[in-house]
């Protein structure tokens, strides 16, 4: 495993634009994780009305899969098709990266389907309800083709 920064022309690693790009990705992922934890603590308090407790817990689990999946891909960025990775480790393999991305993307779509279903139910919009039921299977098929 190689975690060595290759600086250009003997200069410091921080003068390398890739280091700045990776640091920004890592910072944004860290902020997203922190916001997720704050959300978890905030939504622990009992509330009246709105989504039920089970629905909120499901949304938090789905959100966690998406946030941590995106963070994983930010900490270990790679371009699968070009076979380029920032860190040479088994976690940067195409199989691991594509698996994490697939789980995160499906969880994101399931969240949208839940929101669409809630909105369709509140407004009585049949088209929205139909979209909520169709979006997850369509995205799962698309994910299969992305492999």
Count of individual beta strands: 2
Q: Tell me what portion of residues adopts beta-strand conformation.
A: under 5%
SSE ordering:
HHEEHH
The helix content is: 55-70%
Largest sheet geometry = 2 strands, antiparallel
How many distinct helices? Answer: 4
Biggest sheet: strand arrangement = 1-2
Distance between the termini: 26 Å
Instruction: List unreliable stretches of 5+ residues.
Output: none
Explain the overall architecture.
There is one protein chain. With 147 residues, the chain is mainly alpha-helical. The chain has one domain. It has four helices and two strands. A hairpin with a 4-residue loop joins strand 1 and strand 2. The longest helix has 30 residues.
Strand and helix map with partners:
Elements: H1 17-42, H2 53-75, E1 78-79, E2 84-85, H3 94-123, H4 126-146
Antiparallel strand pairs: 1-2
Give a short synopsis of this structure.
By secondary structure, the chain is an all-alpha fold. It has helices at 17-42, 53-75, 94-123, 126-146, and strands at residues 78-79, 84-85.
Properties at a glance:
147 residues; mainly alpha; two-stranded antiparallel ribbon; globular
């Amino acid at each position: 495993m190689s975690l060595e920064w290759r600086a250009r022309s003997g200069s410091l690693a921080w003068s390398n634009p890739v280091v700045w790009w990776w640091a920004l990705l890592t910072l944004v992922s860290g902020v997203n994780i922190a916001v997720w934890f704050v959300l978890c603590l905030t939504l622990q308090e009992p509330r009246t009305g709105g989504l039920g407790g089970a629905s909120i817990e499901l949304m938090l689990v789905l959100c966690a899969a998406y946030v941590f999946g995106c963070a994983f891909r930010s900490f270990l960025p790679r371009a699968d098709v070009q076979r380029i990775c920032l860190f040479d480790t088994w976690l940067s393999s195409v199989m691991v990266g594509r698996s994490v991305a697939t789980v995160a993307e499906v969880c994101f779509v399931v969240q949208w389907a839940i929101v669409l279903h809630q909105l369709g139910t509140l407004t009585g919009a049949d088209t929205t309800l139909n979209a909520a039921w169709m979006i997850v299977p369509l995205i799962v098929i698309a994910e299969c083709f992305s492999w």
